[in-house]
Amino acid sequence: MTVAIPLADIRAAADLLKGFIVETPCLHSRTLSQITGAEVFVKFENLQFTASFKERGALYTLRNLSPEEAWRGVIAMSAGNHAQGVAYHAGRLGIPATIVMPANTPFTKVSHTRNFGANVVLHGETLAESEIFARAKVLSDNLVLVHPYDDRRIITGQGTIGLEMLSAHPDLDMIVVPIGGGGLISGIASAAKAIRPSVSVVGVECAAYPSMSEALAGRHVIPGGQTIAEGIAVKNVGTLTLPIVRELVDDIVIASEEELERAIALFLMVEKTVSEGAGAAGLAALLAQPEKFAGKKVGLVLCGGNIDPRLLSQVINRELVREGRLTGLRIRIFDRPGALAEITRIVGEAGGNIIDVIHQRLFMDVPAKGADVDLLIETRDAGHVDEIRAKLQALGYTPRVLSSSSE
């Protein structure tokens, strides 16, 4: 007996949500296709009002509450996007909402959730700890729990994305979906496999939290650690989602932090759209294992765009460093008048744009009559960096490229 959500239920959810959520575009990306070797189509769920797909399951669940449940009010635990979806639509429907968020949730997500009118409680270091607290509040305050992924109504609402993707592009070979607790991929896989049984559904997890992969393998490794993809940093997968994923999902790819960062940067630079870490996981999978997707028509779910601006800025700069467009050079010079001017002249004549200069005499391991100069230079690419270094070397300098591990 199948454990999938019936297609009729997902179609009914789509009818109930129509006019209340955005039917987001699923567009072909010529440049991402060239970069990855696949024919890439992006489902822009970051264009929802709260910038995340989570609105779908949240609204469908709230609209299925009984009048008595709505009067009691709801509680949810979330790292941010489910919180905003529940808070926004509960406010629209006049339902009291309490949201429990981990203490390290990005400030932008906390502030947005409060602005939607929810009572926000910061508790615990992980979503698992937030869940324990939320379940206690269900009992003490007689609230209705709206679980972020382990609820058939949530899964059903998320499944409407699969309907829309295959309506826009019925010939997709693969759909790539981020996995946290499994609600999104369970809903999409239920819809997609019912409509097009040949379509391959591939999940993506971040390396720090391969919880679904471990659960499918029957292992009980406790994941953890820092990740830019906090939206899928889930320790415990759903009891409802696990059997659906086991039955319907064809494979799961693990994406590294560097691949997630690069995917965020590519979405911004290529598609001119903002993605959070979890939202970029689908593209990160193509960067991690391009051979798996080469030549296929691949639909990516860009599931959310809520990223802290400071973190986004850091990701962009780190990608510019990887591409050789921002470079740090350390140059040892004699501490004499005109030495620094000579170096800056050489760099400028070679076409480099000096952004920052640090002139160290006291705190580096250098001779008393010497100094180390650190330059942050804007360059065209890695080849341009080599040109600048060659010109400096021709005049007797020994420039060293700085990396993130340099001292």
Main beta-sheet strand count, sense and barrel state = 6 strands, mixed
Low-confidence runs of at least 5 consecutive residues: none
**Count of all domains:** 3
Question: Rg from C-alpha positions?
Answer: 25 Å
Query: What percent strand?
Result: 15-25%
CATH architectural name of the largest domain: 3-Layer(aba) Sandwich
Helix fraction?
Answer: 40-55%
Please report the distance between the alpha carbons of the first and last residues: 60 Å
Number of strands: 14
| Global mean pLDDT | 92
**Structural class of the secondary elements?**
alpha/beta
Count of separate DSSP helical elements: 18
> What's the overall geometry?
elongated
**What is CATH's topology name of the largest domain?**
Rossmann fold
Strand order across the biggest sheet?
A: 1-2-10-7-8-9
Write down the CATH class of the largest domain: Alpha Beta
